[in-house]
From TrEMBL:
<dbReference type="GO" id="GO:0016020">
    <property type="term" value="C:membrane"/>
</dbReference>
<keyword id="KW-0808">Transferase</keyword>
<keyword id="KW-0735">Signal-anchor</keyword>
<keyword id="KW-0328">Glycosyltransferase</keyword>
<protein>
    <submittedName>
        <fullName>Uncharacterized protein</fullName>
    </submittedName>
</protein>
<comment type="pathway">
    <text>Protein modification; protein glycosylation.</text>
</comment>
<keyword id="KW-1133">Transmembrane helix</keyword>
<dbReference type="GO" id="GO:0008375">
    <property type="term" value="F:acetylglucosaminyltransferase activity"/>
</dbReference>
<comment type="similarity">
    <text>Belongs to the glycosyltransferase 14 family.</text>
</comment>
<dbReference type="Pfam" id="PF02485">
    <property type="entry name" value="Branch"/>
</dbReference>
<keyword id="KW-0472">Membrane</keyword>
<dbReference type="InterPro" id="IPR003406">
    <property type="entry name" value="Glyco_trans_14"/>
</dbReference>
<keyword id="KW-0325">Glycoprotein</keyword>
<keyword id="KW-0812">Transmembrane</keyword>
Length: 235
């Protein structure tokens, strides 16, 4: 399915997903990142966490009313309840195939093109309307859901770096918190601001990879298997 329409943040994501589906049958999860993010887990740890996810998706949403964003588009198709979230997510392959090829998903995508900032609506809505049947969609209580794809300090905790539009740009003083974080990636880092933060995170990942290879590091996935969105999902 080719997703037409004007160029946006969302459409290139879907085009890349379609290319990945065609090119390989081996991958099981799609994770899209920005240029200002960095992994907090080694490749081994990421594989263990995604295995623990067991087909679920990590798609952030907000509970506040954002209806002015899509009011201009009129009622959404199939009585879908739009949800505001973010475009960057952790999506299972089955969810990606649903988003690309399911008739309701395609029609909803076309509806979002008439809304404001559709990239923050599409994935979140598919994942939080379980009646649509998207694999791994969330079926639990939205107020109980937590998201671990990204560590992003929007103001709830102190920032040792600096804030830009309310978001913490990571500094070296934030590293102890990041080393303990359960999140998969951190957002945001700037290469020209506290560059040693990059170096230290690289060393952390390298050390964990080395220690696992020599049997000095073990990784417990029990925290991830008990996440509410892992226990309450479609499929």
């Amino acid at each position: 399915m080719w997703y037409g329409g004007k160029l946006s943040v969302l459409t290139p994501e879907l085009v890349c997903m379609e290319d990945l589906i065609r090119r390989s049958r081996k991958w099981k999860y799609f994770i899209n990142l920005t240029g200002q993010e960095f992994p907090l887990k080694s490749n081994f740890e990421l594989v263990q966490i995604l295995t623990a996810f067991n087909g679920t998706n990590d798609v952030e949403h907000v509970t506040e009313n954002w209806s002015p964003r899509w009011k201009v588009a009129g009622p959404p198709p199939f009585n879908i309840k739009p949800v505001k979230g973010v475009v960057h997510a952790v999506l299972s392959r089955a969810f990606v195939e649903f988003a690309l090829h399911n008739e309701k998903a395609v029609e909803f995508y076309n509806w979002t093109k008439k809304t404001y900032i559709p990239d923050e609506t599409f994935f979140a809505t598919l994942n939080h309307n379980p009646s649509l049947g998207a694999h791994g969609a969330y079926t639990g209580n939205k107020t109980a859901e937590s998201f671990i794809a990204r560590f992003k300090n929007r103001g709830s905790i102190p920032c040792a770096g600096k804030r830009v539009r309310g978001v913490c740009i990571i500094g070296t003083g934030d590293l102890p918190l990041l080393a303990r974080s359960k999140s998969l990636f951190v957002n945001k880092l700037h290469q020209d601001f506290h560059p040693y933060a990059y170096d230290c995170l690289e060393e952390l990942i390298a050390n964990r990879t080395r220690d696992y290879y020599y049997g000095r590091w073990t990784f417990d996935t029990s925290y991830y298997t008990q996440l509410d969105f892992v226990k309450n999902k479609v499929g």
